[in-house]
Write a structure and sequence with these properties.
15 strands; 5-stranded mixed beta sheet; 14% strand; alpha+beta; 23 helices
């Protein structure tokens, strides 16, 4: 639908009401916003239903419901926009990788890369420059969005301008204000061209072939702008594809020149044709894997078939460190004994490696095939990470809403949870977790918190729960399995998170809570209880452990949010109370007298006016009901407190 059509659809009619913007008087509050979402309307249009309701004098609660529905609808719209943007980025990368696999026209591929980079980054202009070794300078190869002829024909000396800084350091550089940035060398020629184009903010990333910079890919705006980290990484991915396209074109050119210059062309043609056919085959397979959403192990399996060897993906820590670093620095696969290592990297970040085992003699084209596979693997890993981070953010947003009780509609809460494979009708436990290791500085502490949040999010996703970063740590909402206890879950969570982040993690758990969709306020209270339990663990020197309030005996009364006195009495002396009620015995009275007489049976029998054997028999029965350790100091203290609480509460039950 065109913008004019959308605007005409939202324009008020003759009576002043926006066409199609609000539901009928008796309709649901969600209906107009669902219609706006379905039409892809602008954000301003979401104000219309509430404005119309006010104009018609609708009740305040109706208007409040519309305002709440508007906030939720705008949040959904923002999430959909974010997903569409990420899908567009990945689609463009995959399409470009597919173009590269079927490379026919280098200029067409480079134009497509520059056009897609400009579109996805939303810049006024994007351009690509290549080095000219023969003349010792660099020149504009492709521009998109440029309007100045002098800018399009610029030739720059090596080391000049922002591009010169990128070429010298082989690292991305960004300037928010080109003419006031003194980090690079300004020249009259370059500044004049940039001024003609009206550029202000410029981002440049290097085109690398091994350790060498062969050019620079730029994205620029005619206004001040801050380029986000994800945008820099995205442009870097396009630069890698552009370099690969140039490298592939150069390889094809070299192949054609070699075939034309050799008298023994027939044999060489057959050999190289077979190799190139294998490379083309693997490129086609990799493109197909990318398009159908394959994983890194699928890529390894496809390359194994083409190279007739065993290729596996290895995590960065599991690969040979020296060979891995050499491959990343050179941008090529390197030999390691009888194996070959191709680094899987995204910018400066090492994601792992593709390892070809037991294949010491590797043809150069097969080597490049392994390198292309490593590049496709990095794209797949980045795509998987992006999807995982998006899901983690959605899980965190739902838990934040539950903690803050911002959304009290049970149906909407259940629907949001169901999309994340979580069941709010199940019994859950709220856990507060924090790292206990000291941090050297603020950056290390922030990095540790991010790792803890990532580990908690992964754990929550595998357990059909939720996780969010909060109060310097993380909070988790995990379902309680049948036969499991809050204590077991807390200890298991502390161990799993500690293992994942390689540091001690302490976890405090609330008592089990249920029916969260209908009573979301329980989550906030349970979180406060888990925080108190966490603080108690740390004060007691039990860092790196997990526990629930029930583990602290009578101290649990101080930790519990609702002071569960009845539950404490039941857990401590419940079997004795039940025995007296069923049989009409006086075990509770005997216990009271026994403790009051300093745990002396002789004095107790005088207090109760019974024989000492009767006291002994009653105490033996108590031992069978409460366990043999009931007279240990810690248990005895809890039993005395429970007896007193039971005595105080007794009048309220009559």
């Amino acid at each position: 639908m065109s913008r004019d059509h959308v605007q005409s659809a939202e324009r008020p009619d003759a009576a002043g009401a926006p066409t199609g913007a609000a539901a009928p008087p008796d309709g649901g509050t969600e209906a107009p916003f669902l219609e706006l979402l379905a039409r892809g309307a602008s954000a301003d249009a979401y104000e219309q239903p509430a404005l119309l309701a006010r104009a018609e004098g609708r009740p305040a609660d109706r208007i409040a419901e519309l305002d709440k529905a508007k906030v939720l609808a705008l949040r959904v719209r923002a999430e959909l926009e974010g997903r569409r943007r990420r899908e567009a980025e990945l689609s463009a990368l995959f399409e470009t990788a597919h173009d590269l696999a079927g490379l026919r026209d280098l200029d067409a591929v480079l134009r497509a890369i520059v056009q897609r980079a400009r579109s996805l980054l939303g810049t006024d202009i994007a351009y690509l420059s290549l080095n000219d070794p023969a003349r010792g300078d660099t020149y504009m190869r492709v521009t998109e969005g440029s309007v100045a002829a002098r800018f399009q024909q610029l030739r720059l000396g090596m080391g000049e301008g922002l591009g010169g800084l990128v070429a010298q350091t082989a690292r991305p550089y960004v300037t928010e204000d080109y003419f006031h940035d003194e980090r690079f060398q300004h020249t009259h020629t370059i500044d004049a061209g940039v001024r003609d184009e009206g550029l202000v903010a410029i981002l440049g990333v290097p085109l690398m072939l091994g350790p060498h910079v062969i050019g620079v890919l730029f994205a620029a705006d005619r206004r001040a702008r801050v380029f986000e980290r994800e945008q820099i990484a995205l442009l870097g991915s396009f630069a890698a594809l552009a370099a690969a396209a140039i490298d592939t074109a150069n390889l094809l050119t070299e192949t054609r020149a070699a075939l034309a210059g050799l008298e023994r062309a027939n044999e060489i043609i057959r050999d190289r044709s077979a190799v190139i056919e294998r490379a083309s085959d693997v490129h086609d397979r990799l493109a197909e894997l990318v398009l159908r959403g394959g994983g890194v192990h699928d890529v390894a399996a496809a390359v194994s078939q083409v190279l007739d060897g065993r290729v596996e993906f290895a995590e960065a820590l599991a690969a040979p460190p020296q060979a891995l670093e050499a491959s990343r620095a050179e941008g090529h696969a390197v030999r390691h004994g009888d194996d070959w290592i191709a680094a899987v990297a995204a910018g400066d970040e090492l994601l792992g490696a593709l390892v070809l085992y037991g294949h010491p003699g590797l043809d150069p084209v097969d080597q490049r095939t392994l390198e292309r596979a490593a590049m496709v693997t990095s794209l797949l890993l980045l795509a998987r990470r992006s999807a995982a981070e998006a899901e983690q953010r959605v899980r965190g947003e739902l838990l934040d809403d539950l903690l803050d009780a911002r959304d009290r509609d049970p149906r909407l809460l259940r629907d949001r949870a169901a999309r994340l494979h979580a069941d709010l009708d199940a019994t859950h436990v709220v856990l507060a977790a924090r790292l206990d290791g000291p941090a050297a500085d603020a950056d290390q502490e922030a990095d540790a918190r991010r790792r803890l949040w990532a580990a908690a999010s992964h754990l929550a996703a595998t357990r059909q729960g939720l996780a969010a970063a909060r109060d310097g740590g993380t909070v988790l909402l995990l379902p309680l399995a049948p036969g499991d206890t809050a204590t077991d879950l807390a200890r298991r969570t502390a161990h799993q998170l500690g293992t994942a982040v390689h540091e001690a993690v302490t976890a405090g758990a609330s008592a089990p809570v249920a029916d969260l969709a209908a009573r979301p306020d329980q989550v906030s209270a349970a979180y406060a209880e888990s925080r108190r339990c966490l603080d108690a663990l740390r004060l007691l020197g039990r860092s790196g452990d997990g526990a629930a309030a029930e583990d602290f005996g009578f101290l649990g009364l101080l930790l519990a949010g609702e002071r569960d006195i009845t539950g404490f009495v039941e857990r401590t002396i419940g079997p004795v109370v039940a025995y007296d009620e069923r049989r009409g015995t006086e075990l509770l009275r005997t216990l009271d007298a026994y403790f009051a007489c300093g745990m002396s049976p002789a004095r107790t029998k005088d207090e109760l006016h019974v024989h000492v054997n009767t006291v002994a028999q009653r105490l033996e029965r108590v031992g069978r009901l409460l366990g043999d350790d009931w007279q240990d100091p810690a248990r005895a203290l809890e039993i005395q407190l429970a007896l007193r609480l039971h005595r105080f509460a007794a009048p309220a039950r009559h």
